Amino acid sequence: MSVTAVKGGSVRLYSRFAVLIAILVASAVGISLIVGVSVGIGDMPIPLSSTYAAITNRLGWTNVDVNRIHETIIWDYRLSRALVAVFCGAGLALSGAILQSLLRNPLAEPYVLGISAGASTGTVAVIILGLGAGSISLSAGAFIGAFAAFFFVALLSNGARGGADQTILAGVAASQLFNAATSYIVTTSGNAQQARDVMFWLLGSFGAVRWPEFALVSVVVGIGLIVCLFYARVLDAFVFGDEAAASLGVNVSRARLLLFGVTAVMTATIVSMVGTIGFVGLVVPHAARFVVGPLHMRLMPACAIVGAIFMVAADIASRVLIPQQVLPIGVVTALVGVPFFAIILYRFRRAS
Amino acid sequence: MSIKADNLVWKIDSKTIIDGLSFTAQQGKMIGLLGPNGSGKTSLLRLLAGLKKPTSGRITLDGKNIAQIGRRSMAQRVAFIEQHATTNASLKVIDVVKLGRFPHRSMFSGWSTADDAAVTYALERTEMTAKRNDHWQSLSGGEKQRTHLARALAQSPAELILDEPTNHLDIHHQINLLRFVSALPITSIIALHDLNHAAMFCDELIVMQSGRIVASGSPEDVITQALLREVFSVDARVESSPYHSNPHIHFVR
């Protein structure tokens, strides 16, 4: 009897493993396909086969003739852009999922810790006030501003000891403060063109990203995903609150500090590169939870995959919706995200 | 001897919440913790569960100071059910019960047969096996409390600490829960408001007032007319119940 039981168990284990591999392969194929589509779209359309050939050529696997102009466009502009979108989407979705779980609030999103407000203040300080006199890049200014806001929130919410509500309130206060500072700088010292630049940056754009950005964001989000998987069970233990987690043996303040820190670094990195792209971090975790359930060992990879695909799709939409013009990516994510969110809410209401 | 508290003091800023409190809980007994609102019951339970550190004094488990026991080791032997622990996540009963195995598993260790046995036992014991795949939001108040109990049992604890677990339950579920806890072979410390229930089910009672113990011992020794008037400010008559030998309180209008 015990032999068959063990055999049954291992068969079940193998079949679950096979399902896991199948899902991961399907996700990788899905992401590759949408990246390929994204690379092909633009003023000069490029067929998927050329994109594929250009990539395998560059990796040294094949040696197929590819149009030189196509190859340049693929390598120097579009591929890096699409891949940055993959990691930005994944990172924002992961950050949103962490914050929703830790703060036990379905409305929590990556910017709840005041990070986007801080980043925008940092940006206007560089663009308009000329802070650092050219020695500080726009991205560095955004990064510094984001972390200033994060530490402000950490201070206001009493380090890691404050509860979830205190953290959210501190985040609201920080957002108000830094948004006010941004508005103050723009209205008192900016001109119309600068105000427009700031506005465009705030709503998000993948226009300026190249390979160095890809290298940074892929490492940061990659590490973030690994930390999330390491802490998946700990995040599960937070489901009934901090006290319940502590009574299960979780080191609550260390876990909170580490996970908040990871979201802050991921979000600040992303915001400093592509601006504040809203709604991905809010919607994607809900959508993923709806499909794979609330347990984090599945939820985290699901968030990363869905976030990546959603962001690349939004980037495609931002380029094709209006001919000859690129919409700010944040506008697209909100326009697509809100109806999607309404569907989830509606189905959620019926389910409960 | 299971849990022992030794001259416990706990202060928040300058306010004294627990004021020089000592007691010993015997192995396998069910100890009822009574006292008016704000007498420090919840604070004492949190100290005993190791969630807060006492300002002075110490708590020992089988003679070992809990300040020297790691968080995880502590959770491997002491289970705590707090008041109104709820969630808006759409977890299944089985997922909640599996949380009880958290302290017994390392970061990436797989699900062992011991884990499986503990969860199956906990579900059976709390009669939640049939509901194992139901979602948290669809459960009644009694079922939620039983799920919490199952989660605590899955921790395989030697001590179980419950903070007013019968709140918001109908009388049937209140009696069921108390009967269940009193039948467990482990030490339990349970904060209760219903004095008659406490007298019926607990092996020993501890009565608190303003962070101090004002009476402790068997229900017969503790539940007296004088104590009810002094601590709870109610006029009552106490007699030995003809149905169970423990004291029964008649409140007087």
Automatic annotation (TrEMBL), chain A:
Q: Which InterPro entries match?
A: ABC_BtuC-like, ABC_transptr_permease_BtuC
- Membrane topology reported for the UniProt record: Multi-pass membrane protein
Hey, which family's this protein in?
Belongs to the binding-protein-dependent transport system permease family. FecCD subfamily.
Question: Which cellular compartments is it found in?
Answer: Cell membrane
- Which segments of the protein form a coiled coil according to its record? none
State the Gene Ontology terms under molecular function: transmembrane transporter activity
Name the source's superkingdom. Bacteria
Organism placement in taxonomy: Bacteria, Pseudomonadati, Pseudomonadota, Alphaproteobacteria, Hyphomicrobiales
Organism of derivation? Phyllobacterium myrsinacearum
- Is this entry keyworded Cell membrane? yes
- First-listed, main subcellular location of the protein, grouped into a coarse class: membrane
Q: Quote the cellular component terms of the Gene Ontology held in the record.
A: plasma membrane
Q: Which UniProt keywords apply?
A: Cell membrane, Membrane, Transmembrane, Transmembrane helix, Transport
Transmembrane regions listed in the UniProt entry:
17-41, 82-99, 111-130, 136-156, 214-232, 257-283, 295-314, 326-346
Query: Can you say what this protein is called?
Result: Iron complex transport system permease protein
Q: Could you tell me which PANTHER family the record lists for this protein?
A: ABC TRANSPORTER PERMEASE PROTEIN MJ0876-RELATED (PTHR30472:SF25), FERRIC ENTEROBACTIN TRANSPORT SYSTEM PERMEASE PROTEIN (PTHR30472)
Automatic annotation (TrEMBL), chain B:
Q: Which PROSITE patterns match?
A: ABC_TRANSPORTER_2
A single Gene Ontology molecular function, please? ATP hydrolysis activity
| UniProt entry keywords in alphabetical sequence | ATP-binding, Nucleotide-binding, Transport
Q: Does the keyword Transport apply?
A: yes
Please report the stretch or stretches of sequence annotated as the ABC transporter domain: 3-235
A Pfam family the protein falls into:
ABC_tran
What family is this? Belongs to the ABC transporter superfamily.
Q: Which organism is it from?
A: Phyllobacterium myrsinacearum
Read off the SMART domains from this record. Answer: AAA
* Name of this protein: Iron complex transport system ATP-binding protein
Q: Extract the InterPro entries matched here.
A: AAA+_ATPase, ABC_transporter-like_ATP-bd, P-loop_NTPase
